Request: fold
Amino acid sequence: MLFLPELSLLGAGLILFIFSLGSPSSEKMKAAAVSLASVTLIVSLLSINSEGSLFYDAYQVNFFTQLFKALIAFATLIVIIFCNRHDGIDEHVQSEYYLFMFMSVLGLMTLVSSVELIGIFISLELSSFAVYIMVPMRRNIGQTNNQNEAGIKYLLYGVVATGFMLFGMSYIFGLTGSTKLSVIATQIGHMYNQPVAIVGITLVLAGFFYKLALFPFHFWVPDVYEGAANETTAFIAVVPKLAAVAVLIRLVSLISGDGEVIVNVLMVCAVLSMLYGNLSALVQTDIKRLLGFSGISHAGFVLVGLLTFTVQSYATAFYYISGYVFMNLACFLVICTLSEKGKNVSIEDFTGLHKRSPILAITLTIGLFALAGIPPFVGFAGKFMLLLGALKQGHLLLVILAAFNTAIAIYYYLSIVRVTFCTDSEDRATITTGFTTKALSVLLILVIVIMGVIPSTFINLATTAVQTIIQ
Amino acid sequence: MDQLLINSGFPILSALIFMPLAGALLLLFIKNESACRYFALVVTSIVALWSLRLLAGFDQTTSKFQFAEHHTWIESFNINYTLGVDGISILLILLTTIIMPFCVLASWSYIKTRIQAFMVCLLIMETAMIGVFAALDFVLFYILWEAMLIPMYLLIGIWGGPRKIYASVKFFLYTLTGSILLLVGILWLYTANNYSFFIPDMMWQDYSLTAQVYLFIAFFLAFAIKVPMFPFHTWLPAAHVEAPTAGSVILASILLKMGTYGFLRFALPITPEATILLAPYVLWLSIAGIIYGGFTALAQSDMKKLIAYSSVGHMGFVTLGIFVLNSDGVEGAILQMINHGVTTGALFLCVGMIYERTHSRELRLASGVGKYMPIFVTFLTFFSLSSFGFPGTNSFVGEFMILAGTFEFDIAQNNFPYLALAAFPGAVLAAAYMLRMLQKIIWGGTDNPDQSWISDLNVREIVTLAPFLLFVFWIGLGPQPFIDFMHTSVTDLLQHFHAHQEHVIAAAERIF
Reply:
C-alpha cells in the first residue's frame, strides 16, 4: 500500500509499453496518457496520509513525501493535458515519449521518498535518463534542428553533475560510515566545519543544484529549453524541480545553520543565480530561453529559503516551489497552445494576443506578473515570506540584493506583457481555444490567486509536511 | 492595539474596499457595452454614497484610528488584515470615492474599445486605492500599493495615446523600482518591532539614527517617485499625456496623493529624527520642483503636458508644507492635496473634452474655441483660476496656509524667509502659464483654426464638471469644515513629533 503511487506509475509504464508495440494514433495515445496520469494523481491523493518505511528503512513514506508526490502527479497531469497538441513530438515515438515521461516521474517519486544515498542516486538517474531521451524526441520541424544537440548537452552536463554527486557521497560515506541519512545526520553533526565534510556536502548538493538549475550548474538550461519540444520543456521546467527541492530540504537540514562555510557558499550561489538568470533573461527573444533564465533566478530564491535552516523557511521554500510550478505551467500552457506546429515561440509571436485570444492573454499575464512577484499573486507571497525568513536570520545584504533582483526581473516580464496587450494583432490569426484549454487556464489562474491571497493555509500545510521529516 | 477604535458593527471600511472589486467580478458577466457603462456608474456611485457614512460617523475629537477592523490573515508571520481611518486619511478616501463616478462619466464616449475591460480596471483601481489609504498593516498596505500598478499599467497601455507603450512601461518600472527598497524597509521594521507589521506600533519608537536615515531614504525613494518630486518626476508627463482621460484624472487626483500620504503616515512618525535631519534637503527639492514645474509648464504646447508639469509644481507645494513640520504647513498640505485632486482632476477632464472634439491635445489646434463653447470655457476659467490659487478658490486657502507655515518655519530656523521667498515665484509662474493657456483656448489669435463646427458641452459633461466647481468654491470660501476633520490628527502627529524631539535631545544631553 505504501508503494501504491509508484506501483501505479509502473503499471502505466507497462501499459504504455504494450501500446508501443503497435502504432496507435496520436489522439488515442494522448487519451491513454491522460487517463493513466489521472489514475496516478488519484492514487497519490488517496495515499496522502499513509506513513511507514520500506526496503530496510531506505524508503520513507510520510506526509512530506506524499504531498510532494501528489504535487508531482498533478503537475504531470497538467503537462500531459496540454501536451502534443501540435504534434511537437515525432509520431513514431509517441508511445515511447509518454513511457519515458512516466518513468521519469517514477524516478522523481522514489527520489522524494529515498532516505539513503544509493537510493537517492538510483532514483535520480532513473528520472534523469528518461528525460535525456525525451529531449531529442522532438519532431523534425526544420526550424530548429537542434533537439539532438540539446539532448547531448543535457546528458553530458547531467553526467558530470552526477559524477560530482557520487564523489561527494563517497566522502560522506568515508566520514560517517553509512549511507543512511539518519545515521549521517547524527555523525556529521560535529564536523560540518571540517573542509572534507564541506566538500562532501557541497558536491552532493551540486547534483540537485543541477536539477534545480542553480548557478553554477545551470549551463544546460537555455539550450535544452530551446531545443526540446515545448511540452518537454514544460515538463523539465517544473516537475524535476519539485523533487529537487524535496531532496534539498532533506540534505540541507542535515547541516543546520552552524556550518558557516556552507551557508556562505549557498548564499553566493543564490545571489549569483538570481543575478545571472535575471541579467541574461533581459536580452532573450525566445520565450522558452527567457523562462529558462527566469527559472535560474527563481532557483536562487528557493535557495534563500533553504539556507536559513529553519522549519518555517523550508516550508516557505516548499510553498514557493509549488507556486512556481503553477505560474510556470500557466505560461507554458499559453506557449504550447500558441505554438504553430510545435515550433518555438518568440516574444514577438505574442503580438496582439489580447485580441486574438483574451483568455490566453490573461493567463499569460497573470502567470508572468506572478513570476515577477507582484501582489496579490502567489509569487509575491512566496518571495515576501522567503525574504522575511532570511531577514529574521540576519541576512540583510542578501535580502537587499534579492529585492534588487526582483526589480530587474520586472522589466523582462513586463516587456512580454507589453507585447501581449499594447500592440495590435496586425494580420495574425485568432487562436481558437478548446474547452480543456479554457478550463485549465481558469484553474491555473484560480490556484495562483488563491495561493497568493490566503497563503497561510498552504504554509501551514507545508509546515506540517516539513515537520514530519525534521523534528 | 489601543490606537484602534474597533468597529464591532457592520464592517464599513471592508465593504467600501470590496464593493468595487465585487462589482468588477460581476461586470465580467455583462456583455452589453452600454450596460457595462451604467453598471460601473452605479457601482462607483453606490461606493461614493456609502463612503458618506464615514463622514457621518467620524469623531473629530480623537486622533485614533476609527472604523477599525482587525482580523488575522497570515498567522505564521503575524500578518493581519487591519484597517482604520484617521483625520489624515478620511478626506483622501472620500476624494477617491467621489472622483470615481466622474471618471466613469468621463470615459462614457471617450473609450470606444473594450469597454468592459476598461471598467473592470477602473473598479479594481478603486479597491486598491481605498485600501491603500485605509490599510494599517504594512503588508496589506504594500500589497495594495503594488497591486495598483497592474490596472493602471493596463489603463495606459491599452487605451492610451500613440506613445502608450513607452509611457506605461516607464510608469511601471519607475514606481516599482521605487518601492523595492520600501519592501526591505518594511521587512527591517518587522524584525525591529518584535515581529509585527502593525503600523501604529512602528511609530515613535527609538530606532537608532543610522537605521532611521536608511529607512527614511527607502521611504523617500518610494514616495518621492510617486509624488513625484523633482528630479524623480520624469515618468509623470509621459504617463499623463498618454493615459486616457480617466487614467489622467486618477493619476493626478489620487495616485500622486499616495506619495505625500506616505510621507505623513510613515516618514514622519517612524523616522522623526531622520526627518528633522533631512528635511532641509527635501524642502529645497520641493522648491526646485515648484520653480522647475512652473517654467516647464510655461513652455508646453501640449495641454496635458502643461497640466502635468503644473502638477509637479503643485505637489512641490504639498511636500513643502509637510516638511516645514508645523500645523499650518501640514494642514495646508493635506488641504492642498484635496484641492489639487479637485482642480487638476477637473482640468484633465476639460482637456479630455476638448480632445474628444479636436482629437488633439495641441494648444494651437484648440485655440479660439471660446466663441463656440461658452459653457466649457466658463468651467475652464474657474478651474484655471483655482489652479493658480486665485483668492476665493480652494487652492488659495491651501497655498496660503502652506506659505504661512513656511514663513513660520523660516523665521524660527533662519530668521529670514529664504524658503518662502523662493516659493513665491512659483505662484506667479502658475498664474502665467494658466493665463497663457486660457488666453489661447478662449481667444487664440488671428490664425485660429476653424472651430465653428465644435459643439458645446452636453448634459453629461456638465454634470461631470459641476461638482468639481462646487468643491472649488466650497473649500475656497468655507474651508473650516474640511480642516476640522484633520485638525486633531495633525495636532496629535506634530505633538508627538516635537515631544519625541525633546525626548531625544534630553537623552542626548544626559549622555554628554
Q: What stands out?
A: Chain A touches chain B through 35 residues (CB under 8 Å).
